[in-house]
Amino acid sequence: MHYGDKTQEAGFSRRDLITATAAGLLATGSAQAQQPAPAARPAAAGRVAYRAISADTIQLRGHQGDTIDAYLARPAGAGRYPGVVVIHHMPGWDEATMEIARKFAHHGYAAICPNLHFREGKATPEENSASIRAAGGMPDDRTMGDVDGAIRHLRTLRYVNGKVGIIGYCSGGRQVYLAACTLKGINAAVACYPGGVGAGAAGLTPRQPVDPVDYTKDLSCPLLGLFGKEDKRPAPEHVAKIEAELKKSGKVYELHSFDNTGHSFFATDRPDYRPASASEGWKHVFAWYEKHLS
């Protein structure tokens, strides 16, 4: 006897079975529909959990209208983002600095890094840096002209929300301090172990004739400073002088110094790299920009 015959012997037809099955499925679906939907997964802490990025070498107008190279990294998605000017360290416009620009893009910022050594014209960042050192460092006026050009370029981009921060490391940290005191259009600054700031006359040259701390009264934006307690330039006494000037001028600032940490602690490609200090430092950076650039 086949299946159809068994259903008939049980007292209902195949049509009854199909009808009952359908009714059961509808009832199950109705019951599921009445249950509350699962709660949405909370968003990850921070600006974004993940974002595709776009990065390329561009050109912009720098000091006295010179055309220089710059590296621009930004989120690939639609939207308007804060801008950040990344000022490279003395090793130059190198891979490590471009990695920092891409990190900012991943976290939801449009980051631009102008090649401040562009005019040297050497084959490698190291050769350009050596040439700069031999000449007495980057000329402050030219550097400020190039940084100002990068700030202005960011403000022309339709996907930038109108706010721009700056960040720099070592000599770039010094240039951040100088820019925050002498340029317009900066909404927040981050100076990472700014060599020479607070050191007075030590290390000054005709190209860099003034300690930037002397301009503190003209600081035009909130300043975050990140330091290593074992650093020699800036040494702890230099940091103390910086803080004294910031307090005296009534500026908005935060200074953080890390134990067991020297110079270049953010530099993943150098022996000075300190993962714990760098990780904590990045938290301070993104919290600072979230507060002042959003």
Task: Explain the overall architecture.
The chain is α/β, with parallel strands linked by helices. The chain folds into 2 domains: 3-34, no CATH class; 53-293, Rossmann fold (3-Layer(aba) Sandwich). It is built from 8 helices and 8 strands. Helix 5 crosses helix 6 (171-182). 40% of the residues are buried.
Q: What structural category do the secondary elements indicate?
A: alpha/beta
Number of domains: 2
Low-confidence runs of at least 5 consecutive residues: 1-45
Backbone CA Rg: 29 Å
Q: For the largest beta sheet, what order do the strands appear in spatially?
A: 1-2-4-3-5-6-7-8
Order of helices and strands: HHEEEHEHHEHEEHEH
Question: Span from first to last CA?
Answer: 76 Å
CATH third-tier fold name of the largest domain: Rossmann fold
| CATH 4th-level superfamily of the largest domain | Alpha/Beta hydrolase fold, catalytic domain
Please count the helical segments: 8
Reported CATH architecture of the largest domain: 3-Layer(aba) Sandwich
* CATH hierarchy class name of the largest domain: Alpha Beta
Q: What does the largest sheet look like?
A: 8 strands, mixed
Strand elements, count: 8
Question: Into which percentage range does the β-strand content fall?
Answer: 15-25%
Morphology call: globular
Mean pLDDT level: 86
Task: Summarize, please.
The chain is an alpha/beta fold and 294 residues long.
